[in-house]
Amino acid sequence: MKLSRIALAGGVAASTVLLIAGPAAAHVSVQPVGEAAKGGYATINFKVPNERDQASTVKLEVSFPADHPLSSVTPQAVPGWDIKVDKSKLDKPIESHGRKITEAVSKVTWTADDSEIAPGFFQQFPVSVGALPEDADQLVFKAIQTYDNKEVVRWIEEPTEGGEEPDSPAPVLKLTAAADDHHGGGAADDAKEGDDHKAADTAASAKETHAAASSSSSDTTARTLGIIGIVIGVAGVAFGVLAGRRRSA
After folding, report:
1. Residue 166 lies in a domain
2. CA–CA gap between residue 111 and residue 23 (Å, rounded)
3. How many domains does the chain have?
4. pLDDT computed for residue 240 by the predictor
5. pTM of this prediction?
6. Which domain holds residue 78?
7. What are the transmembrane regions (predicted)?
8. For the segment 15-29, what is each residue's pLDDT rounded down to a tens digit?
């Protein structure tokens, strides 16, 4: 009987831990597809789980960091969702590919049209972004999740280094070391560049070979014509000598 009570208490405690840990683990987050290198471009996914048993998620609003404005923000179309992109003027213009950028995306909103995130499911919202800042290790995006029962959950609390995770943490994108090409292409671009160099070398070699062959052919033709000329000349001299002898006879 005593053991049963202990087991029951342990089960209740474990259930309590799961109930507490569950909501904290299931929050709006952001992850890159591959890497998000400083100074480069990346595709990132905002992952939105449904935390409610009796309601569906019908709206997501993501605010982009104002302290590190991004010159390029392009959402990917998501079937069943309308997308709205809001821009705002920058206090300080930024340079991007030789152009001065005076405004940047401040917020992207996804609103369910003929779709929704039902209980027990999640949805990803992809966005292409860049150029990522070179002077930051992470970007913090504040998100607001709205359910069809009008409930609003604000994922806006910024985590602190070494501190505990907030109850409603904001999505955080970790940035990796800068890539050499600043486009995340890395090995693929290097391989392509190598192939281009090989192709150029091959073409140059072929051109040199063709030129050498042409030169050799020209020399051979000239020598052949020269020999033919000599033979004709010798034959002409011999014919003249024979003709002279006949006349003398």
Report:
1. yes
2. 23
3. 1
4. 53
5. 0.63
6. 24-174
7. 225-244
8. 333 333 344 457 999
172-186 burial: b if 16+ Cβ within 10 Å, else e: ebebbeebeebbbbe
Neighbouring-strand partners of residue 233: none
What is the residue-wise DSSP string for 61-126? Answer: EEEPPSSS--SEEEEPP-TTEEEEEEEEEEEEEEEETTEEEEEEEEEEEEEESS--B-TT-EEEEE
46: in domain: yes
Q: Is residue 199 part of a domain?
A: no
DSSP state of 175: P
Which residue, 113, 121, 97, is CA-closest to 47? 121
In the chain, the amino acid numbered 237 is V
Q: What is the CATH number of the domain that holds 48?
A: 2.60.40.2230
Tokens for 25?
A: 């683990």
pLDDT tens-digit map of 151-188: 999 999 998 877 788 889 999 999 999 876 545 443 33
* Helix residue ranges, H only, 145-186: none
Q: Strand, helix or coil at 42? A: strand
Alpha carbon distance 15, 21 (integer Å): 10
